[in-house]
Design brief:
about 325 residues, alpha/beta, 6-stranded mixed beta sheet, globular
Length: about 325
């Protein structure tokens, strides 16, 4: 029997000592919104992604807390995202390869960060070739979290690492997420809107809805007020389930997702609105990672979906 949690015989280098090694492991990064507690429960490794405030580098839940981050963000401090060093990535891979024969590395979408492309090049080195499989299926936040769960399910079902990578990447366009932002300041700092547009938007209470689709983040619609933004997102999600993702929706193979950089009370209210709009569907909600929140700002609310990856026939 193969799969997650299964073991094979291996030897410790230099000692000849025989020990048992698990077959396939999963490594992801903190843009997946997977907490330390859940990572331990799932048996995966989560690489903390770096971001900066001035010259100071921070790591989520390592050198800065969520509360401190948002307090400083609201005070007007500017945070910018960055890539992990190759040495840091290799450290996580090496630790995982001490426990597993092969690993799936699921990083943030290549459309949002160069870290995925860097990892793909690194995985071609002799020491990692055919042992590290970098998955680029255009995900971030809760859809990326869902990808990790999909990978673990397929490992448990006995699929090979190569086949899992293929299935996950084939499902690249089978997801979408809409995000309503509460403030335009962070979009202005990130260069997505001009200072003049931000000033006019604030004056007119404009709250843009962003659409994350196949690795890119673009403006979907401009709304007057957050209530209108939430209504627009729910309507867009209904439309997508009835059209783009109908095949999966009809088979019950769509996962309804939510994300938030708002306070717990606002987040709970948003999840309840989603449940009322989509009766009978479970909603998996995550806090947006601090790296993503650098761009979205505080008070952001998101809704989206991800389809169950199609399985390939086993050899």
């Amino acid at each position: 029997m193969q799969g997650y949690g299964c073991w094979i015989i291996a030897k410790e280098k230099g000692t000849g000592e025989v020990f048992m090694k698990k077959k396939i492991g999963v490594v992801t990064d903190s843009h997946s919104s997977i907490t330390k507690t859940e990572a331990e429960r799932l048996g995966i490794r989560v690489l903390p992604m770096p971001f900066y405030c001035g010259e100071e580098c921070y790591y989520e839940d390592v050198t800065i807390s969520r509360a401190e981050f948002f307090e400083r963000l609201k005070a007007g401090e500017a945070f910018t995202t960055s890539q992990p060093s190759p040495e840091t990535v290799m450290e996580y891979w090496n630790e995982a390869l001490e426990e597993y024969e092969k690993i799936l590395y699921i990083p943030i979408s290549s459309g949002l960060s160069g870290s995925c492309q860097t990892a793909t090049v690194m995985a071609e080195e002799d020491v990692y070739k055919d042992r590290v499989f970098v998955v680029d299926n255009g995900r971030v936040s809760t859809p990326m979290h869902r990808t990790v769960l999909d990978a673990l399910e397929m490992i448990e079902e006995g699929y090979e690492a190569e086949d899992i990578k293929y299935s996950l990447e084939q499902a690249r366009d089978k997801m979408v997420i809409y995000i309503g932002v509460q403030t335009l300041e962070n979009l202005k700092r990130g260069g997505r809107i001009s200072p003049a547009t931000a000033a006019l938007g604030n004056m007119l209470n404009i709250r843009p809805v962003l659409k994350f689709d196949v690795g890119t983040l673009d403006t979907f619609k401009k709304c007057r007020g957050i209530a209108k933004a939430k209504k627009t997102m729910i309507e867009a999600m209904h439309h997508d389930l009835e059209t783009v993702f109908k095949e999966w929706y009809d088979k019950g193979e769509v996962y309804l997702l939510a994300a938030s950089s708002a306070d717990p009370e606002t987040t709970a209210e948003w999840v309840q609105e989603i449940k009322e709009a989509f009766p009978g569907m479970e909603v998996m909600c995550d806090e947006l990672s601090l790296g993503v929140s650098c761009h979205i700002g505080p008070g952001g609310l998101g809704i989206g979906c991800s389809c169950r990856p199609k399985r390939q026939k086993k050899a």
